[in-house]
C-alpha cells in the first residue's frame, strides 16, 4: 500500500501532528515503507500457528495467604522518637478535646 501526500496529511491531522513542510515528504515515505512491510507480513501463512498473547511464558506466582509475624513490636518502636512502650507517641495536630 502506498501512502500519498493527501492521505499522509490527513493522518497527521487525525493524530494531531504538524511536521514541518521539509519533513513531510520524508515522513510520508517512511510511513509508506512501514505499510509496505505490514503488507509483506500479511502474506505469511499463519494457519497452523496458535494465537500468542505474550512471547514469555509466565508462571503463576500465587502463594498461600498466611499471616506471619516478621518483626517484633520492640524492633519497630526502637527507631521511633517517642513511644509508650506499645505505641508511637505523636504531637497533637487537631485542636479541641
Describe this structure in words.
It is a single chain. With 97 residues, the protein is mostly helical. Helices cover 38% and strands 0% of the residues.
Distance between the termini: 76 Å
What does the overall shape look like? elongated
Number of helices: 3
Our estimate of the beta-strand percent is: under 5%
Q: Indicate the low-confidence ranges by residue numbers.
A: none
**SSE string, helices as H and strands as E:** HHH
Helix content bin = 25-40%
Global structural class: mainly alpha
Radius of gyration: 31 Å
Q: How many strands, which pairing sense, and closed or not: the largest β-sheet? A: none
Blueprint (SSEs and pairs):
Blueprint: H1 5-14, H2 21-42, H3 73-77
Descriptive terms for the model:
mainly alpha; 38% helix; 97 residues; elongated
Quick summary:
This protein is mainly α. Helix content is 38%, strand content 0%.
Amino acid at each position: 500500500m502506498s501512502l500519498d501526500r493527501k492521505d499522509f496529511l490527513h493522518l497527521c491531522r487525525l493524530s494531531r501532528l504538524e511536521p514541518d513542510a521539509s519533513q513531510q515528504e520524508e515522513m510520508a515515505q517512511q510511513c509508506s515503507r512501514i505499510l509496505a512491510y505490514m503488507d509483506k507480513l500479511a502474506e505469511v501463512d499463519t494457519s497452523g500457528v496458535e494465537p500468542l498473547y505474550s512471547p514469555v511464558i509466565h508462571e503463576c506466582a500465587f502463594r498461600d495467604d498466611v499471616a506471619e509475624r516478621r518483626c517484633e513490636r520492640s524492633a519497630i518502636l526502637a527507631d521511633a522518637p517517642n513511644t509508650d512502650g506499645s505505641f508511637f507517641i505523636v504531637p497533637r495536630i487537631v485542636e479541641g478535646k
